[in-house]
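User: Can you predict the 3D structure for this chain?
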Amino acid sequence: MREYNYKDTWEKLLSPEIVRKLTLISEYKGEQRLFIEAHQDELRELVEIAKIQSTEASNRIEGISTADDRLKNLVQAKTTPRNRDESEIAGYRDVLNTIHENYDYIPINANYLLQLHRDLYKFLGNTEGGTFKTGDNIIREMDAEGNQHVRFMPVAAWETPDAIDELCNSFRDAKEIVDPLILDMMFILDFLCIHPFNDGNGRMSRLLTLLLLYQSGFIVGKYVSIEKIIEESKETYYEALQDSSINWHENKNDYKPFVNYMLGVIVSAYKEFESRVKLLTDPNISKADRIREMIKNHIGTITKSELLEMNPDISDTTVQRALADLLKAGEIEKIGGGRYTKYAWKAE
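Assistant: Here is the predicted structure, written as structure tokens:
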């Protein structure tokens, strides 16, 4: 039987790399508090942008999507879902809003996890949400030849309610002893290994990541989409998850790969928050230069629509002109075409 003994195992994760990331995050947390106090108006725009990006990215990881204009209207509750994908997107939006607005009042226990999962599926009009899995689920992967293999066997369905109760109890018992960031990520890894629902485990894990971070005082995910950073590095995410789940049932797994990866995601989010706020609040930087700096400091590729979302005070024409000038100067490269066009900073 799996045990969740965080109090006796967490210190084994304090490698030099993890300690360095914990220190960085602590420093960024203090700086963010000062930014929030000084720039409330500018940050409201970042919150709305992050909601859209988080909803899109977390669902897209699971193959759930809709058109860009539909997505924005769904997240802003300006339209109603037309199909299953849009119903799941709307559900994610509502749970995300619940976490944003009520994170201090959501206990970590089975009852509340079930309620959040229920709301994730509330637009589907069926009984998929709000219940633990009714049959055993298997996590499979496909190799290059198209053959499927079992990657991980989660907890059996009949054991799941007790496993979630034990997980939540162990989490609460460890809160006064274990470093909050390490504890939060160990919890998420174990949640994913239990895989308590028939569907929606990945999206629930990302929503719970935000919830636990907010409750621990790390609210960067409110202003910068942590889900988007995970999506842009999802191969590494799945590798870390797999490495940390080896021998999980035997209580011999190593949490370090997953915890280290997730701490890296949080560091990236804080760095992006810092760069965005500085650009938004610097009166001496032109709009074209702001576009340039955002592309330069962005992780991975970025689209024109994302630049427009991140800069609601800059017109489409100005963004298009800035992109053309950067392409002409050879500072960025264009990837794809049409509505799928993306841009990336050219490495120096």
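Residues 337 and 343 are 10 Å apart (CA to CA). The chain has two domains: 6-280, 286-345.
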